[in-house]
UniProtKB/TrEMBL annotation:
Protein name per the record: Nitric oxide reductase transcriptional regulator NorR
Keyword ATP-binding in annotation: yes
The species this protein was found in: Pseudomonas fontis
Sections of the chain in a coiled coil: none
Domain Sigma-54 factor interaction: 194-423
Signal peptide location: none
Hydrolase in keyword set: no
Keyword terms of this UniProt record: ATP-binding, DNA-binding, Nucleotide-binding, Transcription, Transcription regulation
Domain of life: Bacteria
């Protein structure tokens, strides 16, 4: 590699440093430039978040990779890259499992990565994350290319630094304390992460950030399984009460008498079995947040008592006349239409209005488009770790099946489906495979997984019904195919080209001829 070729690849990134770009676009350009400099089958940028590596951008890897969270201790190649200040290249016969085996985009066979190179990124002299390059050709990378990767890593770190500085400035302009608190809380709690890139998901995140900095009572609504408790946790983490407790109670799990005891506490002798004093959830949550799940199940009697506490901030334990003052932020959740319940006389109007100061609707999974693949990646990585597999992936027809399904049970249904399907698919192998692929038939989705011959091609547009000549009809169909591929890959031309089996330059020329560029 010549100095001229290195300079040619790096100059656009230097120019980008002075431009205001969305974070995702900046990272996409970074990987695109790296693959131009060091041709390979896949590249990734991952941020180190405690003991986890979080993919921020991938090129050439399956869409679900962005939803995965890699625990460093379970991936020795990642650990080796992070432990070395210089680029690391693994021998083609290395026995260390590759985290990306089976995840290279566009490959239906169980091909494993044979040439792998990676480099840590340092920001302000602290480890920030890493970049990786993977190839199916065992001789893809030459020794001299390690120097090129090192030079690229320095500029990549500068790109990351710029992106983070821009983000920090934006956060400070909106609400410095609130947003910094969100970042601090998110840094060590992977299991509470909200994953998604769809427009409706981003709107939800923005609303969480907006209401999180206030003390308003929030009523979270949405279908069963959409993750309402996760949203409540995110609101708490975004608030000034984040360092205080968040106490939860499922109102549907207890009878009325026990609900009152759980909420307000009791004194000795208040009822049969009350052998001592006990603080309720309100007192335990004092200074913090109380989350009431399934609040639509509360009886009218309990609603009246809760309303008094919310209005006055004072409560009495069952069996006691003594008042206790509490400072609690209330977040409630329900899958019921409480406005309709009020109209039907089954819910108190004053209590409903007290709860719904800030209503927050959590979108159903079927409204979130390709987020289903990111969430699948997250659950696949969890199951891969639990099952002790090197790689757990979705075949193209399985991805198509997931995208086509309606998800009445939402994210919870997806989580259970991935776990169940992974176990069933593993049971079909007499010997433990290195790479386990889930096919559409393994998912057993009603009306989708059992359909014969389903594959990703079935998501392509139908042939046009054209009265013109053959050339015109072909142009119309090609235009539809390209537009559909670009939509699936969020306007990433390199990924769309790989899906369509074209060289990117050829796709660009074809798109220009068809009037798409």
């Amino acid at each position: 590699m010549t100095a001229k070729s290195l300079l040619t690849a790096l100059l656009p990134l230097v120019s980008d440093l002075s431009r205001e770009l969305p974070e995702r676009e900046r990272y996409r350009r970074l990987l695109e430039a790296m693959r131009a400099l060091l041709p390979c089958d896949a590249a990734a940028l991952l941020r180190l978040d405690g003991e986890w590596l979080v993919p921020l951008a991938v090129d050439g890897l399956s869409a679900d990779t962005l939803g995965r969270r890699f625990k460093v201790s379970e991936h020795p190649r990642f650990a080796a890259i992070l432990d070395s200040p210089d680029p690391t290249r693994f021998a083609s016969d290395s026995k260390l499992p590759d985290p990306y085996d089976g995840l290279v985009e566009g490959l239906h066979q169980h091909l494993e990565v044979h040439d792998c190179m990676g480099c840590p990124l340092f920001v302000d002299e602290r480890p920030w994350g890493l970049i990786t390059l993977d190839a199916l050709d065992p001789e893809q990378f030459q020794p001299a290319e390690r120097d090129a990767l090192q030079a690229f890593a320095s500029l990549a770190a500068a790109t990351v630094n710029v992106a983070e500085r821009i983000e920090r400035l934006a956060l400070r302009a909106e609400d410095e304390h609130q947003r910094a608190e969100i970042y601090r809380q998110a840094s060590g709690q992977q299991h509470k992460e909200l994953i998604g890139q769809s427009k409706v998901h981003k709107r939800l995140i923005e609303e969480i950030r907006l209401v999180g900095g206030s003390d308003l009572t929030v009523l979270i609504t949405g279908e069963t399984g959409v993750g309402k408790e996760l949203v409540a946790q995110a609101i708490h983490q975004a608030s000034a009460r984040a360092d205080k407790p968040m106490i939860s109670l499922n109102c549907a799990a207890l009878p009325d008498t026990l609900v009152e005891s759980e909420l307000f506490g009791h004194v000795r002798g208040a009822f049969t079995g009350a052998v001592g004093e006990r603080r309720g959830k309100f007192e335990l949550a004092n200074g913090g947040t109380l989350f009431l799940d399934e609040v639509g199940e509360l009886s009218l009697t309990v609603q009246a008592k809760l309303l008094r506490v919310l209005q006055s901030g004072q409560l009495q334990r069952l069996g006691s006349d003594q008042e206790h003052r509490v400072d609690v932020r209330l977040i409630a959740a329900t899958n019921r239409d409480l406005a309709e319940e009020v109209r039907a006389g089954r819910y108190r109007a004053d209590f409903y209005h007290r709860l719904s100061v800030y209503p927050l609707q959590v979108p159903a999974l079927r409204e979130r488009g390709r987020d289903v693949l990111l969430l699948s990646g997250y659950f696949l990585e969890q199951n891969r770790s639990r099952m002790g597999l090197n790689s757990l992936r979705l075949s193209p027809d399985a991805q198509a099946a997931l995208l086509a399904y309606d998800w009445p049970g939402n994210v919870r249904e997806l989580e259970h489906l991935i776990g169940r399907s992974s176990l069933k698919a593993l049971g079909q192998h007499p010997e433990r495979p290195r790479i386990l692929s889930l096919e559409a038939r393994d998912l057993d989705l009603p009306g989708v997984g059992n359909a014969p011959g389903i594959n990703a091609a079935e998501l392509a547009p139908a042939l046009p019904d054209s009265a013109g000549d053959l050339r015109q009809a072909l142009d119309v169909y090609q235009r539809q195919l390209i537009e559909a591929a670009l939509a699936r890959h969020e306007q990433n031309w390199a990924s769309a080209a790989r899906e369509l089996g074209l060289d990117r330059a050829n796709l660009s020329r074809l798109a220009r001829r068809l009037g798409l560029r």
